[in-house]
Write a structure and sequence with these properties.
There is one protein chain. The chain has twelve helices and seven strands. The protein is of the alpha/beta class and 303 residues long. The protein has a seven-stranded mixed β-sheet with strand order 3-2-1-4-5-7-6, with helices on both faces.
């Protein structure tokens, strides 16, 4: 029996990402981003009675979707602690790991979480409600230069300097407490036809900063080479160009920047080999689930 809200999450690239794991029925697998449980349910459907699935999710709300199955365990922690908690649960290595790096539909749809541009809410955007840093601190307490860096690096906003300056000017008059106040403070940058796109980029940038998503992803990827058995698979869905570049480079070089050291013959060792090419959703999936439009799936096999 599955105890979950059916509308909690519409998994992106469900079949493709799980196919990419090349599942052994008696294997041990990890869903690093459990969310609504859609990917986990598909993985479990391919396991035998002796297979195991360990899922991670830092969001307390995800616990409401736990799966009542003896083969399944849900760890209420960030996947940056992958290695530590797998060992705590008796697994030094696993046969495959899947990670969907997107914000869950539930987090977008619950107004008070502050993730969505559709609702007015307190500036929050924390995936882990125990996290001390929220969107409020980023907007109201960061120095102007730091806000500029966040908007430019994570939101890819060319007007980041002017936006940062405007935020500081507005908060000097009164704290910016809600998403509506943030939107109003940046209204001159929200041109009618591009308002939703620009606002989404602003929210994305702040959310990535609040949840340290880039640093967390790096920590997670570095651990996968220790945790996945030789021949095991890594399947990662990303939604942001910066995330995708990190995944691509790590699979190719085992590094996030630069080139690996080569021996005298010009060869170098890497922990993974690429499996297939970049996979993106087809038009049908994008029509059925608009949040799939920017998804990119990369698959790798541990050497």
């Amino acid at each position: 029996m599955v105890l979950m809200n059916e509308v909690y999450h519409n998994p992106v690239l469900l079949k493709e990402s799980v196919d990419g794991l090349n599942i052994r029925p008696d294997g041990v697998y990890v869903d690093a981003t459990f969310g609504g449980g859609g990917h986990s349910i598909e993985i479990l459907s391919r396991l035998s009675k002796t297979g195991k699935l360990i899922a991670f999710d830092q969001d307390q709300d995800a616990l409401l979707n736990t799966i009542n199955d003896v083969r399944f365990s849900l760890i209420n922690e960030n996947f940056r602690y992958l290695k530590r908690f797998l060992r705590f649960h008796g697994h030094k290595q696993v046969d495959g790991i899947l990670a969907d790096l997107g914000v869950s539909s539930h987090q977008f749809d619950v107004a008070e979480r502050g993730f969505s541009t559709r609702f007015n809410a307190d500036l929050d955007m924390r995936m882990d409600q125990q996290n001390n840093l929220s969107a409020y601190q980023v907007v109201n307490e960061y120095e102007e230069e730091h806000i500029r860096q966040v908007l430019f690096q994570y939101g890819e906003l060319r007007q980041a300097p002017a936006m940062a300056r405007e935020i500081v000017e507005q908060r000097n008059k009164a704290p910016i407490k809600t998403t509506s106040q943030l939107k109003e403070s940046l209204s001159r940058f929200l041109k009618h036809k591009k308002e939703n796109k620009v606002l989404a980029q602003i929210y994305q940038a702040i959310r990535i900063e609040v949840n340290q998503e880039i640093e967390v992803l790096k920590e997670f990827l570095l651990q996968t080479q220790e945790v996945i058995k030789p021949g095991g698979r890594l399947s990662v869905i990303s939604y942001h160009s910066l995330e995708d570049r990190l995944v691509k480079r790590y699979i190719r070089n085992g590094l996030f920047e630069g080139e690996p050291e080569r021996d005298i013959y010009g060869n170098f060792e890497v922990p993974f080999k690429k499996v297939g090419g970049l996979i993106t959703p087809d038009q049908k999936e994008i029509i059925n689930n608009n949040r799939a439009r920017s998804a990119k799936l990369r698959i790798a096999e541990k050497l």
